[in-house]
Amino acid sequence: MEMIFRDDAYRKSCEATVVSADDQGIRLDRTVFYPTGGGQPGDTGILTLVDGDPIRIIDTRKGADHDDVVHIPEPGTAVPAPGTKVTAEIDWERRHRHMRIHSCLHLLCAVVSGDVTGGQIGDGKGRLDFNLPDTRLDKDDITANLNRLIAEDHPMAARWIGDEELAANPQLVRTMSVKPPSGAGQVRLLEIAGVDLQPCGGTHVARTGEIGPVSVTKIENKGRQNRRVNIALAE
Known about the structure:
By secondary structure, the chain is an alpha+beta fold. It contains 4 helices and 15 strands. The chain starts with a strand and ends with a strand.
């Protein structure tokens, strides 16, 4: 399957062909839909057929093969036959909010020094958990530093490195519980020039300025070691 979102997070639609469809969902030969993973929700949207009613996609997930994407239609929807031509179109406004939040969480990694123990991306909000047992975090200070990095409008871009290079640079991996997939020969990195570099397979904006103003809404103690930092778009 061609995963267009990996190389172009701004593609909103594409022409595709149905490879298979069953009670698990619909598989296409190519897609702009991002599947749930790395704390980022799967895309929603529409599959438009040449003949027949549009199919509303309410979730997108990875298949058994990590190079497979399953588009989940609304319950009770008649699925198209293999070989059917469709136009796949994501709910762009929702995706773009995910991109902005996901990008801001990378900035949060640069602002807060600590290993990441968990995280989640929502529609206009998100959070990261840090392993910081003896650290007090200041909500206003983190908010100011995030907005400073956003205003500096740093470029953001994905690039790939080999498994061996990642193994030789373990400091690139900030997450304690989830390791980037290896064994395929290469790993995708997200680089914010001069700010942050770490493995990530999600979708992001092209420059930090596109994130827009944000605020730290709450800092919570989650157990003896975990400190949870919640952020939201300020609009």
